[in-house]
Each structure stands twice: as structure tokens, then as C-alpha cells.
Design brief:
globular, 10-stranded antiparallel beta sheet, HIT family, subunit A, alpha+beta, 3-stranded mixed beta sheet, 304 residues, 13 strands
């Protein structure tokens, strides 16, 4: 489908060709890597206005009736369709929206995420919370991208070690992701029901901020060697203060799952050139839980 889209959809063809030539910078953060991508086409997402009035004004770009005529649709189950993302971050980048116009919420859709990861087992499937990088918080959707483009895909196996194991129940293991700037919890299991049960426990342990509909989070899901590996990264902030700053302090970053996966997207060249290890640390300390903030949640599971 993607190959066909690149033949018949000029917008997608241009943006995928540009992505192949995208400038990349890499930073060794002392134990993990950040890869910075200069990608002007992502201004559509990074700069999206997500206040209620703006969302109500614009036609939803994920509703079937509003999709471009050139955009092919591949049904997935009864409630979703798989689309080529015309503003790619990955060499193969797909969006999987629900057919109905329903708000972005993960709790009732978690098993859908698992089934997508099983079907798309050569990809990393991910979820952006309504204020965690989703540019369409009013329409349920997942995304899938080429695996191993995000440094986290490469670094994940090194996190699944006995020292990080919090608890093990039946065939389900829960690991702590820490000392990583994007701290969180990792579920590993071959059983769909056990994965869902553990996720609900994590969900219920996280705070819901005033005015929000669910705990802020990003999620990665893979199906590898007969088991699901699901990473939940809780969030404390939508965007860093630099997003709204003026002048030399401005840095246009609205972190979503790809950024938390170590692939930091910069739609402006001045931001691409400005990135430093210090700036990366500052941004992710603002938007993600620190080790200290995650500790009470980790202790809850370790003692259960």
C-alpha cells in the first residue's frame, strides 16, 4: 500500500523523499542515545493548535469523510483502518484511526493496541495521549513506524534485566524503566488478558490531572518472539516552557512517542542546530516523571 501511495499521491511522495534526505544529529547521553531529525513537514503536527475551539473549528483529518481522495485505506478489524501517514517520521509510517469520531482514550482500546502490535510485528506501534503528542486528540488513533529507527527500540532489551524486575505474576513480568529521562514501566507477557490486567493496574496508579480525561502517557507496543513488550511512559506536562517562549529561548518541541523513543523531531532548522545534551535533559525532565516521582508507583508494584 505504501509503495502504491508513493506512486499516486504527490504529497506523500515528496515528504517520503524529503525524509530520506533528512539531516540527523546524534547525542550520546551517557548510557543512551538521542537522534535528532530535522523534518519541516512535521510542523503540521508540532505546531497544531489543540485547544477546544480550534479543534471544533477544523474538519477532523482522520474521519473517513475528510480523508484526501488519494489516500488509500486498508481495513483493520471492524473498527479501524490503516492509512499511510503523509507526514512521515519513519521510512514506513502508518496511522491507524478508528472509523468513528471518538476521543483519544486508551483504557477501552488497550486490547486493540495489543492486536495491532501482533498484526504489525515488524513495526513499533505507539499511542500518544490527548496531550502527549497527539495532533488529533478528538479522534482515537494509533501509529506504527519502522522498528529500530528510534534508539529506544535498540536499547529496550538491555532494560529487561533481573535488576529492573518489579513483580512477576503468572506469566506476566513488570520492569522498571529508570535513569533514562523518559522513565516508565514495561509489561512483558504472552497472554493478552494478563497484559490488559497489568496495564489497568498501572493506569489506576497514575494521577489524572485536573481537566484531563486519563493519566497523561505515551505507549510503545511490540510483539517479539511470541510475547508482547509494552512500555508505558507517564507524563507530567504536555509541552516544555520553551515551546511558548519568544526570541532566542524558543524551541518548538511538542514531544510525542517518537521523541520519547529517542527520535527528537525538529521542524525548524534553527532548533535542529540549537539542540544540545543540556537542552534535551531540560525538556524531558519537564515533560516526564523523574526517578523520584516514579519511585512511589514502582514501590507499590514491588510490594504487591
Amino acid at each position: 500500500m505504501l509503495k502504491e501511495q508513493l506512486k499516486c499521491w504527490p504529497l506523500a511522495a515528496k515528504n517520503y523523499a524529503d525524509l530520506a534526505q533528512a539531516k540527523i544529529r546524534e547525542f550520546d547521553m551517557g548510557g543512551f542515545l538521542f537522534r535528532v531529525q530535522f523534518n519541516p513537514s512535521r510542523m503540521v503536527s508540532t505546531g497544531a493548535k489543540l485547544d477546544k475551539a480550534s479543534l471544533e473549528k477544523r474538519p477532523c483529518f482522520l474521519c473517513p469523510a475528510n480523508l484526501p481522495a488519494e489516500q488509500l485505506r486498508l481495513p483493520f478489524g471492524e473498527h479501524y483502518q490503516l492509512l499511510c501517514n503523509p507526514f512521515p517520521i519513519f521510512p514506513e509510517h502508518f496511522t491507524i484511526p478508528s472509523l468513528g469520531h471518538e476521543p483519544q482514550l486508551i483504557r477501552p482500546r488497550f486490547r486493540d493496541l495489543l492486536r495491532l502490535a501482533l498484526a504489525l510485528d515488524q513495526y513499533t506501534v505507539f499511542y500518544n495521549g490527548p496531550k502527549c503528542g497527539a495532533s488529533a486528540p478528538d479522534h482515537t488513533h494509533f501509529q506504527a513506524g519502522t522498528r529500530f529507527r528510534m534508539p529506544y527500540d535498540e536499547e529496550l532489551p538491555s532494560k529487561l534485566i533481573p535488576a529492573n524486575l518489579l513483580t512477576q505474576q503468572k506469566g506476566c513480568s513488570l520492569y522498571l524503566l529508570h535513569d533514562y529521562l523518559r522513565n516508565g514501566l514495561i509489561i512483558v507477557t504472552a497472554d493478552e488478558a494478563e497484559a490488559e490486567e497489568m496495564f489497568f493496574r498501572i493506569y489506576d496508579s497514575l494521577p489524572i490531572q485536573s481537566g484531563e480525561t486519563e493519566p497523561m502517557m505515551n505507549i510503545f507496543a511490540n510483539y517479539v518472539e511470541g510475547r508482547w513488550v509494552v512500555t508505558i511512559i507517564p507524563r507530567r506536562l504536555h509541552r516544555p516552557w520553551q515551546y511558548s517562549a519568544e526570541g532566542k529561548d524558543k524551541f518548538l518541541s511538542s514531544p510525542g512517542a517518537a521523541d520519547l523513543g529517542g527520535l527528537l523531531i525538529t521542524p525548524r532548522e534553527e532548533d535542529f542546530l540549537k539542540v544540545s545534551p543540556e537542552l534535551i535533559r531540560d525538556i524531558f525532565r519537564q515533560v516526564c516523571f523523574t526517578d523520584e516521582e516514579l519511585s512511589p508507583i514502582a514501590r507499590h508494584f514491588a510490594n504487591s
